[in-house]
Amino acid sequence: MSDSLDKESANLSGWFDENAQHRLPLRVYYEDTDAGGLVYHANYLRFFERARTEMLRLTGFTNAGLTASDGVSFAVRRVEIDFVAPAKLEDTLEVVTRITDTGGASFAVAQIARRDGRDLARAQVQLATINRAGRPARLPAPVREALINLCTRQKRD
Predict the structure, then answer these.
(1) Does any domain span residue 132?
(2) Secondary structure (H, E, C), 88-120
(3) N or C: which end of the chain has fewer CB within 10 A?
């Protein structure tokens, strides 16, 4: 975790647990639900995106910062989601994110949305690094090192 984050920012960004997995709490709002009061299936993608963004922030990088400094951003290349049980209006969820692979221009994560320890949705996401023109690009070395470090710590613990 970056030393420059204050306590409020760290709470907004979630935290890394003892196994180096990122955890982000989320509340289900009315805007997240369908007419029946259940989370609309596509909104799990938004929850997972938020969690990946905050995990990156806790490693010391931001999407806007990487675009400004290195001219790169991340694009979802592939996603597979299993919907296990519905989340409901006003539920408090936790999204757990774990790095599963890191390559030269991509990385993969496993993500789970949970309520009270019960899995609601599970995703496998492959992300590609792209430049401003939308072409594949190498992961910036410091980002790649941070992701490899997390992945190694997650497998070890």
Answers:
(1) yes
(2) ECCCEEEEEEEEEEECCCEEEEEEEEEECCEEE
(3) C
CATH code at 51?
Answer: 3.10.129.10
Query: What tens digit of pLDDT does each residue of 88-132 get?
Result: 999 999 999 999 999 999 999 999 999 999 999 999 999 999 999
Catalytic positions: 34
Taking the C-alpha atoms of residue 15 and residue 84, their distance in angstroms, rounded to an integer, is 25
**Of the candidates 69, 59, 76, which has an alpha carbon nearest to the alpha carbon of residue 132?**
69
In a domain, 1, yes or no: no
CA gap 32, 37 in Å, rounded: 9
Task: Count the domains in the chain.
Answer: 1
Any domain includes 100:
yes
